[in-house]
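Students often ask why inverse folding is considered easier than folding. One informal answer: many sequences map to the same fold, so there is more than one right answer. In these notes we will look at a single instance of the problem. The structure comes first.
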């Protein structure tokens, strides 16, 4: 009987962990409140970016109004929510509507770097030096040419440039079809989209449906700037299966322990950023090799040879 109960308990724990993982993947964390761009409309809440190593840690690096805010899971009800605890840095998880509902407050409008840890129940909100308002923390891509097609709930998230918070990019395969750029995976088709104004310029329109056409299946670098509204779509290869040519450096492996090796290049200046955009290492490589043994485990971005690479330090 004891063995049976233990087995059932273990199975329940495994099922609960799987369920939580599934919910977390489908319902990423978001910020809501009058300090955010779209106020208290939870269907238009602002997505946070999840840490690649610590799934309980989330980031928001963009503009906040003066006002209040708290955190929800997207596509969820008003509970659970992550509210203000005893201090401005302590987070309280609100499980029922009868629990205290105390929002965080932001006194001065501006750009902020927000770090939420839903396991440690901590929050940090730090002013950013960029004076121009960064209106979106995340940008996504949908369309027949995109990796997940027209499935808005699985729209491909673009990578924010750690040295330019207005620049987002995608590097990878696109097939023949169309693309446009929503600011959220969960609002539906009437949300704000960055759509085509010309081959090199965008416009932000609610429910907009003017798209860029990809005429050749290939590997592309798509770069957009939400401040200047510039867009660049560069074909890196002639076919999806073609290996990148020597003029495009690449990482030998994007999972490393002590040394980071960049192929197709020799010595170069580099800078490495963590997921919050802070510079953690810089210098000059030796025969394309960078010593990263002193970095903590985690996800990093390497900027070298006018390219940006993502890698994991084990």
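Output (designed amino acids):
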């Amino acid at each position: 009987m004891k063995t049976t109960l233990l087995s059932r308990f273990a199975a329940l724990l495994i099922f609960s962990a799987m369920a939580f993982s599934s919910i977390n993947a489908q319902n990423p964390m978001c910020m809501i409140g009058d300090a955010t761009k779209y106020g208290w409309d939870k269907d238009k809440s602002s997505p946070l970016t999840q840490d690649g190593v610590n799934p309980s840690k989330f980031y928001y690096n963009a503009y906040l109004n003066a006002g209040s805010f708290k955190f929800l899971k997207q596509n969820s009800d008003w509970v659970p929510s992550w509210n203000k605890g005893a201090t401005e840095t302590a987070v309280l998880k609100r499980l029922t509507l009868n629990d205290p509902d105390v929002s965080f407050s932001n006194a001065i409008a501006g750009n902020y770097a927000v770090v939420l840890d839903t396991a440690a129940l901590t929050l940090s909100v730090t002013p950013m030096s960029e004076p121009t308002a960064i209106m979106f923390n995340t940008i996504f891509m949908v369309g027949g040419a995109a990796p997940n097609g027209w499935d808005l709930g699985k729209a491909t998230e673009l990578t924010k440039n750690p040295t330019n918070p207005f620049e987002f990019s995608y590097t990878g395969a696109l097939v023949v079809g169309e693309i446009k750029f929503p600011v959220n995976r969960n609002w539906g088709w009437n949300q704000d989209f960055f759509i085509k104004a010309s081959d090199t310029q965008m416009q932000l329109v609610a429910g907009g449906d003017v798209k860029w056409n990809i005429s050749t299946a290939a590997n592309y670098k798509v770069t957009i700037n939400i401040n200047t509204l510039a867009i660049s779509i560069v074909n890196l290869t002639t076919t999806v299966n073609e290996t990148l040519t020597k003029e495009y450096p690449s990482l030998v492996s994007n999972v490393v322990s002590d040394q980071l090796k960049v192929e197709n290049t020799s010595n170069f200046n580099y800078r490495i950023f963590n997921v919050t955009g802070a510079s953690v290492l810089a210098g000059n490589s030796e025969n394309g090799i960078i010593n990263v043994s002193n970095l903590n485990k985690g996800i990093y971005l390497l900027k070298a040879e006018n390219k940006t690479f993502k890698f994991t330090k084990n």
